[in-house]
Design a protein that fits this description.
Strand order of the largest sheet: 1-2
Number of helices: 3
Number of domains: 1
Strand content: 5-15%
Distance between the termini: 59 Å
Shape: elongated
Structural class: alpha+beta
């Protein structure tokens, strides 16, 4: 089974790495658990994990919120 880094997962999803990390931090998407690989902690994404996120992306309310105009 092939695994992908978070950077590779973001490329496959067509979004930037920073956007994917923001969605994970805001808990807008369900990311795989962190795994310890020697001295490094990383997320390993499977193809099914990426597909789950691909289905969630259209439902995420993203973008800049509109500011109220002051009169």
């Amino acid at each position: 089974m092939a695994t992908f880094s978070t950077r590779e997962a973001a490329e496959k999803l067509g979004i930037s790495l920073m956007s994917l990390q923001r969605y994970i931090a805001a808990r807008k998407i369900q990311a795989p658990k962190l795994r310890r690989l020697g001295k490094v902690t990383a997320r390993l994404w499977s193809a099914s994990d990426i597909e789950k996120v691909r289905k969630q992306l259209p439902k995420i309310a993203n973008g800049r919120k509109k500011r109220k105009r002051q009169k």
